[in-house]
Amino acid sequence: MLALSETTTSDYIYRAPVSTSSSSTRAVMGLLAKQPVRRLSSDEHLFHEQDHTRQIFRIESGVVALYRILGNGRRQIMSLRFPGDVVGLDIGANRHCSAVAISPVVARSTTRRTVDSLVERQPQAAAEIIDLIGEELASTRQQITLLNRRSALEKLAAFILELDRRQSRQDLVRLQMSRTDIADFLGLTIETVSRNLTKLKLRKFIRLPDIHSIIILDRQGLSDLADGDADCD
Amino acid sequence: MLALSETTTSDYIYRAPVSTSSSSTRAVMGLLAKQPVRRLSSDEHLFHEQDHTRQIFRIESGVVALYRILGNGRRQIMSLRFPGDVVGLDIGANRHCSAVAISPVVARSTTRRTVDSLVERQPQAAAEIIDLIGEELASTRQQITLLNRRSALEKLAAFILELDRRQSRQDLVRLQMSRTDIADFLGLTIETVSRNLTKLKLRKFIRLPDIHSIIILDRQGLSDLADGDADCD
DNA sequence: CGAACCATTGACCATGATCAATGATTGTGG
DNA sequence: CCACAATCATTGATCATGGTCAATGGTTCG
Fold it and tell me: Contact, A168 vs A145, CB < 8 A?
């Protein structure tokens, strides 16, 4: 989905956040930074739900979706992971979710084993892992508040702002994914996504210069919507 | 998890699961087990969203809700924690959610500082913490699949089965919480909860001997509903 | 016994899913 | 390079689920 030649440089490339947060060493991140890059094309899997062994990835560019297939056959995207994010750390017994590139992705990866032995040599690295999983937990909780009891319009407003935040762009948001991906992430249908994007456009909150781009015109308006402080429908 | 043969009195008390899973030492759990018990009554908070310091609890009996207040004033319960579960480990920067007892609760608690110094002395304890947070992550993801794209009836069926699993009862499920709590957990209104409970009753999937108890009559039927394999509406 | 709270039930309505048709964009082979 | 196919996005019409408002019933506590 989505061509995207990274030739034209960073226009389509999310930037890795400077340095996420808090504490600890950067031992695990440092380890990952030394790995060779690996390129995945759209729809290529990082790992599957049922995999026993699981590699650990750090995303350099592109978007990765963590998803699960529900009983009714629907795909629920639990989390979107962007450049700078680590994917696959949530190991242990069975974490049952799959990871797939929903845009061309560049990532560096290592094995669980390597990370484990790193922790053995540098016990403080465990604190970093705890931080990283904690971030994933926070993002998953955020997803719950995004999904629940919010109208389609509110979900989309929040989604656009989140993308913008992650891309550290001022106005131009690159979607880098299909309407289906957005729908599966927000728990909507593609029709509803489409309708509410045009609704945001009609309200002059955004412009849609092309199908994979959004220009934010009224950040405050979007923000009010996303927070549920909306004045009306 | 489970087995539970308790007698008399504790009819309303969940038992802690024997030993959750997998790996590592039980150093943190051991530390918690040595703490004095603390009793909280319904609606008493373990901690608030904005708290800086945060204690770490192990629930002995009762139910704790992790929740957040959304912009529209609604309460979203992100996670229900039962006996044997640890609450408050998801520290780090700001995890922004509050924890409240929604039934009388008995818990043991310690401070973050104590756990940290334990990890300093026994680095392997970090692996246990990673496991515990990983469990919380898994449960939060489970909550997403429960919330999203499921009908009210499906949510309730899944909820009842989950409670049953946690109480290791065969047929009798003690709710130990109000309809409002259930609604805030499932992302529904109390009216919808009520209506769909009676719908399950009419279909002979459950009985409702009293307002805080459910008797499972057709586990397979509930299971089919919860998995979305349902035959019809 | 009455008051307060919680749960149930009903009537109505709005949001979003579904079904269906049309447009737009991309990819492929002649 | 164009034509066709295939995929994806948009828009419309209809309907069902669940939210809201409102009234009633049941339980508990003073």
Answer: no
